[in-house]
Amino acid sequence: MSFSQAVSGLNAAAANLDTIGNNISNSATYGF
Question: CA of 18: how far to CAs of 1, 2, 3, 14, 27, in Å?
């Protein structure tokens, strides 16, 4: 049980970093 919680936490953190990276790369584009 705790292992799956750790994995889902890592997945959530990775998705959050991915979103931040997309925001940074898109912030210089028109219409963002």
Answer: 26, 24, 23, 6, 14
Alpha-helical regions (H) of the chain: 2-26
- N- to C-terminal Cα separation, the chain: 40
pLDDT in tens, 6-31: 777 777 777 888 888 788 777 777 76
Structure token digits, residue 24: 């940074």
Asked if 26 contacts 32 with a C-beta cutoff of 8 angstroms, the reply is: yes
Which residues touch 26 (CB under 8 Å, ≥6 apart)? 32
Task: Tell me if the pTM is above 0.85.
Answer: no
